[in-house]
Amino acid sequence: NAGVMQNPRHLVRRRGQEARLRCSPMKGHSHVYWYRQLPEEGLKFMVYLQKENIIDESGMPKERFSAEFPKEGPSILRIQQVVRGDSAAYFCASSPPARDRGLSGLGTDTQYFGPGTRLTVL
Amino acid sequence: AQKVTQAQTEISVVEKEDVTLDCVYETRDTTYYLFWYKQPPSGELVFLIRRNSFDEQNEISGRYSWNFQKSTSSFNFTITASQVVDSAVYFCALSEADLLLVRTGANNLFFGTGTRLTVIP
C-alpha cells in the first residue's frame, strides 16, 4: 500500500532555470495539496487540487509558480525562473475524496504527506 | 483568522523523562480539526493524530497522549518515558471546516512553527 510519492527527493537548480516537482497521491486519493517549508519554519499551504481542477491556490505566489493535477499522471508543481528564495522543502499531501468520508460528513480528512522534495537554488 | 502557536522552539530532555509539547490555536470557526505531525531528522512528515472540535476526550496511544482543552484553545502533546527515537520536530496544525469548502473538500492545514525535541541518551 504505497504512500504518497514525490520525486525527485533532491533537486538542484541554478537561478533562472525551471524546477518541476512531482507528486503521486496515495491510491484512491483524489485530493492533492502542496506545502512549502522554508528552513527552520513550519509548512505553509500553497495550493489544493483535485483531478483537472485547481480548487484553492490562495497560498501560491502569483508569479512563476503553477500547479496541475491532470486526469492521468502525477500532480506537478512548476517553478519557473527560480531564485535563491525558492530554496525550500516542498511537500505534497493527499486525502481521499469527500464521498469516502465517514459518518462525520463534515470537514476534513487526514492529509498524508510525501517525503518532500528539497529544492536548492544555486 | 487562523493561527497556531507553538511557543517552545526547542526542548531537550533526558531519556525516560516525560515531556509535554504545547500548542495553542486561534480560529473563528466552531467546527475545526487539530493535528499533530512528527518530522524526524530524515525529513518526512508522519501523521500522529487528528482531533475534531466536538470531541474533547483526551487520547492515549502507547507513550503518546493528547490533552485537548477548548476553554484554553490548547491541544498539548505529551510523550511519556521519552526515547531517543522521539527526537524530531513536532508540528501542530489546524484545519477549519467551512461548510462551503466542505463540498469541495478543501481543508488546507495551518501549521505552527514546530518544536524541536531532542532526547538525550
Overall, the morphology of chain B is: globular
* Helical residues, percent of chain B: under 10%
Given as residue ranges, the uncertain stretches of chain A (5+ residues, pLDDT < 50) are: 100-107
Rg calc of chain A: 14 Å
The structural class of chain B is mainly beta
Total strand count of chain A, please?
11
Count helical runs of chain A: 0
Regions with little confidence, pLDDT below 50 for 5+ residues of chain B: none
Round the mean pLDDT of chain A to the nearest integer and report it: 89
State the assembly state of the protein chains. heterodimer
The mean pLDDT of chain B is: 89
Main β-sheet description of chain A: 7 strands, mixed
Strand count of chain B = 12
General description of the model:
The complex is a heterodimer of chains A (122) and B (121). By secondary structure, chain A is mainly β. In chain A, 0% of the residues lie in helices and 46% in strands. Chain A contains no helices and eleven strands. In chain A, strands 2, 4, 5, 6, 9, 10 and 11 form a seven-stranded mixed beta sheet that branches. Chain A starts with a strand and ends with a strand. The model of chain A is unreliable at 100-107 (pLDDT under 50). Chain B is mainly beta and 121 residues long. Chain B has one helix and twelve strands, in the order E-E-E-E-E-E-E-E-E-E-H-E-E. Chain B has one helix at residues 99-104; strands at 3-5, 10-14, 19-21, 24-26, 32-39, 46-52, 59-61, 64-69, 74-79, 88-96, 110-111, 115-120. In chain B, strands 2, 5, 6, 10, 11 and 12 form a six-stranded mixed beta sheet that branches. A four-stranded antiparallel beta sheet of chain B has the order 3-9-8-7, with no helix packed on it. In chain B, a hairpin with a 4-residue loop joins strand 8 and strand 9. The longest helix of chain B has 6 residues, at 99-104. Chains A and B meet through strand 4, strand 5, strand 9 and strand 10 of A and strand 5, strand 6, strand 10, helix 1 and strand 11 of B.
